[in-house]
């Protein structure tokens, strides 16, 4: 039976857009279905607006603290509406890359509507029945909302509303201690908001290196952010026009509540049972080819759980492109996945961290740790907080790395390249420009050779005897 399309793509976020544009340019017949607007969470509520807001907040922080360099200012003013105008300008500049017009120009049929599967081979939207050789689900995720007494009645915002604010509340209570909570919490604090973070775990950024997380926590405390760890809100009330959150026997009062406790997959309206697609609370279940339990249907991005990053969704889209358009022979490989939390200092990571490495390898690893304060460029800029930590095998194979410090999100890529190409950690010791922050990578890589030498007493004795013999000979 002839199919109308080669691919039906459901969801116009990062993953879906990559599949749609590439497939169309390969001359496949493609339809892209999106219920709201193209670009996904990253463009409208995530990466783009948050990093634009963070940029403004960093400038505000630097100006406030410029006296440390002998530079003084008077009457600093922050016009939040103008900060948001910058955020909106950045979105509007990037948005044409994700516009319906661009994709229709590439040959993609773009349909806006809220559709569902009616059987294993058909997706229905706007009364139109779409059939294809293969389908791709890339519907993303939404903020998870906790079941807390009084929260809905009191009202709250998530990352989907925070960038629509035109006036800042004087105080915000943030529920959550992950990346979004930390990034927005610090940015809003630097713009003048009193911030309280309620984290359910005993560590901010609980998936990250404990030492790195502690640096972030100390920085937050230094900036005046109140942190309550190992706690969850019990109930919320409105008292005298203020929102009151009850936690650990304490009443926290603020003008606004920001909920950031995680994400939930956007699957409710898809009628996946009809399509014979299995899923759980984390998202759609896929195999290493990114096929669902219905082999004609693929999944990528936040909707399948796992690594919830725009760049991972884009990577998964490239796997689907080959498997869905041609033959399902390509497997996904998550061994070298980098990410960063854009707090100040930044925290970047690739591979496994120290605690994970010890669980897997025991004592058969070497930890290479280089302090940022020992990098001269960091000293010149007064950004000495942080370190680079690379975990390697006894033979020098890189298992993972964490960098915390200024520009960590940029610095991590040299290690990503080394891991991707199975290079030893000593490959990082190539010549680096002085003085640059990137020297931290060469310094950390050099520690492997230094530690090996320090442990090799036989070599040290041999060299000692060699040089003593040369001195005796007189040359």
Q: If you had to describe this structure to a student in words, what would you say it looks like?
A:
- It is a single chain.
- The protein has 475 residues and is of the alpha/beta class.
- The protein is built from 15 helices and 23 strands.
- Helices cover 35% and strands 23% of the residues.
- The strands form six sheets. Strands 1, 2, 3, 4, 5, 6 and 18 form a seven-stranded mixed beta sheet that branches. A five-stranded antiparallel beta sheet has the order 19-20-23-22-21, sandwiched between helices.
- Helix 1 (14-25) packs parallel to helix 10 (310-325) and helix 3 packs antiparallel against helix 4 (80-94).
- It is globular, with a radius of gyration of 26 Å.
Write the layout of secondary structure elements.
Layout: E1 5-10, H1 14-25, E2 30-34, H2 40-44, H3 47-64, H4 80-94, H5 100-105, E3 109-112, E4 116-119, E5 122-125, E6 128-137, E7 141-143, H6 151-154, H7 159-162, E8 171-175, H8 179-190, E9 194-198, H9 210-222, E10 226-228, E11 235-239, E12 242-247, E13 250-254, E14 256-259, E15 263-265, E16 279-280, E17 283-284, E18 297-299, H10 310-325, E19 338-341, E20 346-351, H11 354-361, E21 365-371, H12 376-381, E22 387-393, E23 398-405, H13 408-420, H14 439-455, H15 457-473
Parallel strand pairs: 1-2, 1-6, 2-3, 6-18, 8-9, 8-14, 9-10
Antiparallel strand pairs: 4-5, 5-6, 7-15, 11-12, 12-13, 16-17, 19-20, 20-23, 21-22, 22-23
Helix pairs in contact: 1-10, 3-4, 3-8
* Alpha-beta classification: alpha/beta
Detail the poorly predicted runs.
none
Main sheet? 7 strands, mixed
Overall body shape? globular
Distance between the termini: 88 Å
| Count of strand segments | 23
> Helical region count?
15
Helical content (DSSP H or I, runs of 4+): 25-40%
Note the beta-strand portion: 15-25%
Q: Report the C-alpha radius of gyration, rounded.
A: 26 Å
Average pLDDT score: 95
């Amino acid at each position: 039976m002839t199919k109308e399309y080669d691919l039906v793509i459901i969801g116009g976020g990062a993953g879906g857009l990559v599949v749609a544009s590439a497939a169309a340019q390969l001359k496949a017949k493609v339809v892209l279905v999106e219920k709201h607007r193209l670009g996904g969470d990253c463009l409208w509520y995530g990466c783009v607006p948050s990093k634009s807001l963070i940029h403004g907040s960093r400038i505000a922080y630097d100006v406030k603290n410029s006296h440390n360099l002998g530079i003084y200012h008077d009457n600093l003013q922050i016009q939040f509406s103008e900060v948001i105008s910058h955020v909106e300008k950045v979105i509007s500049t990037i948005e044409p890359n994700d516009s319906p017009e661009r994709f229709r120009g590439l040959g993609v049929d773009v349909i806006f509507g809220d559709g569902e599967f009616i059987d294993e081979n058909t997706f229905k939207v706007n009364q139109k029945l779409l059939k294809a050789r293969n389908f791709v689900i890339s519907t993303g995720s939404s903020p998870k909302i906790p079941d807390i007494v009084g929260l809905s009645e009191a009202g709250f915002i998530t990352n989907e509303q925070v960038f629509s604010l035109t006036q800042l509340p004087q105080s915000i209570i943030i529920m959550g201690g992950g990346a979004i909570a930390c990034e927005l919490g610090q940015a809003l604090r630097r713009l003048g908001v009193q911030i309280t973070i309620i984290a359910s775990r005993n560590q901010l950024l609980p998936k990250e290196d404990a030492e790195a997380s502690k640096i972030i926590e100390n920085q937050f405390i230094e900036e005046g952010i109140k942190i309550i760890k190992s706690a969850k809100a019990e109930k919320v009330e409105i008292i005298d026009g203020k929102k009151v959150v009850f936690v650990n026997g304490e009443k926290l009062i603020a003008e606004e509540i920001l909920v950031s406790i995680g994400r939930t997959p956007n699957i409710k309206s898809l009628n996946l049972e009809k399509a014979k697609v299995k899923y759980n609370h984390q998202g759609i279940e896929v195999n290493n080819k990114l096929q669902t339990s219905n082999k004609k249907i693929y999944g990528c991005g936040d909707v399948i759980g796992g690594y919830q990053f725009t760049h991972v969704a884009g990577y998964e889209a490239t796997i689907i492109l080959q498997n869905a358009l041609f033959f399902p022979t390509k497997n996904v490989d998550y061994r070298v996945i980098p990410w960063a939390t854009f707090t100040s200092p930044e925290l970047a990571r690739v591979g496994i961290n120290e605690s994970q490495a010890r669980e897997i390898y025991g004592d058969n690893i070497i930890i290479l740790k280089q302090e940022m304060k020992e990098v001269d460029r960091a000293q010149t800029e007064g950004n000495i907080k942080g370190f680079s930590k690379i975990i390697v095998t006894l033979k020098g194979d890189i298992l993972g790395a964490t960098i915390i410090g200024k520009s960590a999100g940029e610095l991590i890529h040299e290690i990503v390249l080394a891991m991707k190409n199975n290079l030893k950690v000593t490959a990082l010791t190539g010549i680096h420009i002085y003085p640059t922050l990137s020297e931290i990578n060469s310094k950390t890589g050099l520690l492997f050779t230094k530690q090996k030498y320090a442990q090799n007493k036989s070599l040290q004795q041999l060299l000692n005897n060699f040089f003593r013999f040369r001195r005796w000979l007189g040359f």
